[in-house]
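[audit] Reproducing an earlier prediction to check determinism. Same input, same settings, fresh worker. If the tokens differ from the archived copy the diff job will pick it up downstream; this log only records the rerun itself.
[audit] input (481 residues):
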Amino acid sequence: MKATVFRRALPLTAGILLLALQAGTATAAERPNLVLITGDDMGFQLGCYGDMVATTPHMDRLAREGVRFTRGYITQASCSPSRSSMLTGLYPHQNGQIGLAHLGYSMRPDVPTLPTLLKQAGYRTGIIGKLHVAPESAFDFDYKQTNTADTRDMEKVRAKCSAFFENLGGKPFFLMLNFFDPHDPHLQDIGGSPKAKVATEQAKIFPFIGTDTPAMRQRVAEFTTCVNRVDEGVGALMDVLRQNGLLENTFIVVLGDNGPPLPRAKVTSFEAGVNVPFIVWRPGQVKAQVSDALVCSIDLMPTFLELAGATPPRGLPGRSLVPLMRGRPVEWRKTLATEYTTHEPRNLNPQRSIRDARYKLTMTLLKDPAFQWPSETPLEEYRKIQSRAATGEYLELYDLQEDPYEFRNLAGQPEMRAVQERLLNELRSWREQTQDPLLDLAALRALVVKEKDAPPTPVAAWKKAKQAEANAKRGKAKTKR
């Protein structure tokens, strides 16, 4: 298994394994329902985050009536690692899920998971849409419908949500609803959805991309159309909750698993990859506000467990968002770290980043400049780069206030020395506290060797199969009409 070297290098924090789960004093009737909604590759391209083209009235409503975090982060801009953090409260380098699950990367088998803990606390648990974290046996969902293509079909979304809500047995519930949109392939019509489609001439290039071509505008238009379909899915879920009398007692959290599949976003450490929409809503329980607090997907597990009246495992790096959600004064973190290790073997590019209210530092652990754009490098050439890469450090420092899209690297400039050293110290402290195995150069070298010798990945075949599945789905939809 590709992640074996990495996982062997990580002694999981003992405190995390000393699980102290217990039901709180709240009765089942008093405990709220919990819904976690993710958009696959969904970045800030929503109306409530300032996008002038996207049509997202349902998510805009949740943002308007709840808390919209402007500095909401995932741990790594890659699907499986990101989702693993949502469901364990740990960074990928802590739980072991450093790359894509279908390529052999996997969590440690002894990591406590959110659905299992909530089930032990008396919740009925369900997942609709892709899980994409391994091993799947670690996630003890009562109801599991993980066909990814079905989440693009609004009729099936409604039917699956209804089936889950009709069999709660009087228990509170946790539902994870994972939309496959706006992930590739960007299908523009599934059974008439979305109603709002974006033409190429309407599209506006996202400023983080740094280039404007007709082909890129078309891709942005197709991507935005798929974001609109996610919003229709959110509306469908809310309709079903309302019809079942469950909406008023339900917390809803919406976020992207990482940023868009576009340049300088997904599979990078740039802001467009890790800074995602992050919205929390519940009538009468969440104060309507816009918050610039530094929050992260590692905060979801302690948040949901607190709301459920359960005690989280000790040693989690995240914190409960409940005080922020309710507008209470609270001393909050001043810095937040993210990471990147790999996506698939050709994307190996270990990085660690940290930001404060203004500045962001990214450390690339393999200093060969070719690692900056690994996804554009042919596999064989990339293996040559890996084999000669020296272990070292390459730094990037950005002023996010003056340069929010990270085009001007300030690292090494004399006037930035104090900021750079401060963030380096903060980053080093975080890596030590979370037991980052790549602090050990031997582990870093072993990871490079392991990935260099990996066989070509089946990503192309996987994408082809997904495209065929989507085409078949589209054909059925046309036949039905």
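[audit] rerun output stored. Observation attached for the diff report: Residues 1-5, 8-26, 372-377, 456-462 have pLDDT under 50 and may be disordered.
[audit] end
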